[in-house]
Write a structure and sequence with these properties.
- It is built from six helices and six strands.
- The chain has one domain.
- With 214 residues, it is an alpha+beta fold.
- The strands form two sheets. Strands 1-2-3-6 form a four-stranded antiparallel sheet. It has a two-stranded antiparallel ribbon with strand order 4-5.
- 51% of the residues lie in helices and 12% in strands.
- The chain is globular, with a radius of gyration of 24 Å.
């Protein structure tokens, strides 16, 4: 809900490409951009590629929800349940953009002071599953110049942490990081259970042979 509220506010209140300092800080900003939903703003396959990507994400959310329900039934630790919930919520947040934003919003034009409209008279800017994901958080902590001795990059400018993301991206990242840092034992235990089950299903052939001989 927080993710969607902030995206809608940014979409309707900020011109595309504009920036607002958060609490007056130079290293924490709201910077309105949109992307096609792939990591780092990449785009591949045009309309068909976007449709396949969106369909795949919807299917993966269904799988994750099934896994989460299984974890709840097995009474797994609360931290693991929260981590999976964050991943699911974040994925759903970005899927909503792809599904509906193209239908309900007008185009946000880069370097234009005109704001996007909600439910425009002429229709939205893209069909179902072709909407763009709204990003806004930017934390350019510091900038500098690469040393001359670095191949190809020497002498060029850089900004540390130049990525722009949204609440949904942050939820997914926190959920994945939490699982990797604090819940790796769960997957090891699950593997041990599977190995134990396989061992228990092996029939003791030697015992059967001796019985037949008797």
């Amino acid at each position: 809900m927080l993710d969607q509220w902030l995206k809608i506010w940014v979409k309707l209140s900020m011109p595309y490409g504009s920036t607002i300092d958060i609490l007056g800080l130079s290293w924490a900003k709201l910077h309105f951009v949109e992307n096609n939903g792939m990591a780092f703003g990449l785009s591949y396959g045009g309309v068909v590629g976007k449709f396949i990507l969106s369909t795949f994400r919807i299917a993966m959310v269904g799988v994750l929800i099934y896994i989460l329900r299984t974890l709840i039934k097995n009474k797994e630790p609360l931290g693991l349940l929260v981590a999976f919930s964050l991943i699911i919520a974040g994925a759903m947040g970005n899927i909503i953009d792809s599904m509906f934003y193209g239908l309900i919003f007008s185009e946000s034009v880069y370097h234009s002071a005109k704001l996007a409209e909600f439910m425009p008279v002429g229709g939205g800017y893209a069909p179902f599953l072709q909407g763009r994901v709204v990003d806004m958080f930017s934390f350019p902590l510091f900038s500098g110049v690469y040393p001359e001795w670095i191949p190809k990059l020497g002498g060029t400018n850089f900004t540390f942490f130049s990525f722009i993301f949204n609440v949904a991206d942050a939820a997914i990242s926190v959920g994945v990081a939490s699982i990797l840092l604090f819940h790796r034992k769960f997957f090891k235990q699950d593997k041990k259970k599977a190995e134990t089950t396989d061992t228990n299903t092996i029939t003791p052939i030697s015992s059967n042979t001796s019985s037949e001989e008797e």
